[in-house]
Fold this sequence. Notes:
single chain, 27% helix, alpha/beta, four-stranded antiparallel beta sheet
Amino acid sequence: MSVLSFLGGLTFPRGIEPPGRKDQTRKQPIRRLSFAPRMVLPLTQHFGRPARSLVTRGQEVSRGEPIAEADGWPSVPIHAPVTGTVEGVELMPTARGPKTEAILLRTAPGDSQVVRWSRERDLDALSRQELIEAIQDAGIVGQGGASFPTHLKLSVPEGYAIDTLVVNGCECEPFLSTDHRLMIEATESIIAGVRLAMRAVGAPEAVIGVEDNKPDAVAALQQAVAEEDAIRVVQLKSKYPQGSEKMLIKALLDREVPSGGLPYEIGAVVNNIGTMAQLGYLLPRGEGLIERVITVAGPGVERPGNYRVPVGTPLRYLLEEVGFEGDDPSRIVLGGPMMGNTVAFLDVPVTKGISGVLVLPEGVGDETDRPPTQPCIRCGRCVEVCPVGLNPAELGRLAAKRQYEAMEERFHLNDCFECGCCSYVCPSNIPLVQYFRIAKSLNRERAS
């Protein structure tokens, strides 16, 4: 056990401790959102190749029915979130900006929220590979925001052995409380999902890390695993970005993922707690991922809370349901304030990877509201907080000179996972993380 465990709780070096701002939603039970009249299902809702549409204009589909199939191994299918009629497959705007093909689905008036399609399997009889294929068929992707297909995350390359499944219950982003509520309300599904994931990767042990600002979640999980020898729950210090893979592995296992490496290289696989809840609920029922829990919070929300939202629900409809009045997309952040992104339009849909919607006060998104950027004063604060030990100040200076290749080759730009700690502490208001995103994007274009 590291020395850090004796100095205020298990954690990782560096990082920041921003205000949590979770009181607005963390004590509110999950509520179910009503169906929007029309659903928009992008064929690209995950890392990897887009799904391929299986439907035609005018076709009637049932809630839970597959409407798009996986295009090979690095892809997942899409299931109908409502019973209704297909209006077509068209190019539609997305939260990321560019338009993409999407299935438009008109909701059947008065339809219930009962799932009408399922494909049950005898999970106990499945081999590890068959179990992973079943996970792909369910269309499950990471629920923490990255939307990486879960079956790929659980497919360990040949030659590597996994001794520990690490489950991320930290939810260190301010405002978000989706995982917190799931750990309290969907404890049984989470533990069932952990057991299935352990089988899939061949891990004899699992450890669930939860930050100490969620004592009720820690207690619920510990009670659920009281008679489990292979699953343990560990309380961690509340710090950002505790939930990042490398930071979580360091805090829980005292191991370091090598630069440019992946967790399986040191015997670990990391999954989000929400992903485990989906896994443990959907697979035993033979259902696909058609909805997820989303935190809707912020000063601009009249009815903040955690809502179970059908995938494909237009963002505008969701905001109207929680009492948001306005038409300014610059006030809306998808995800948390640290790693989330603003949207260009309110008519984009909720997708599988969106964990939160943050509504800022009026005027906050305006250019005039932002403090001016000043020259770097070489204070070193960004270096002190960078969780992976980079030199953000030097990377920022190279970015200003457009020396993007040097940033990657000499200063390990690709180890940056864009947590935003450097921008948060910068007294000169330099948007360092935005510079790094641009640099990585241009380097990828150059390499392609």
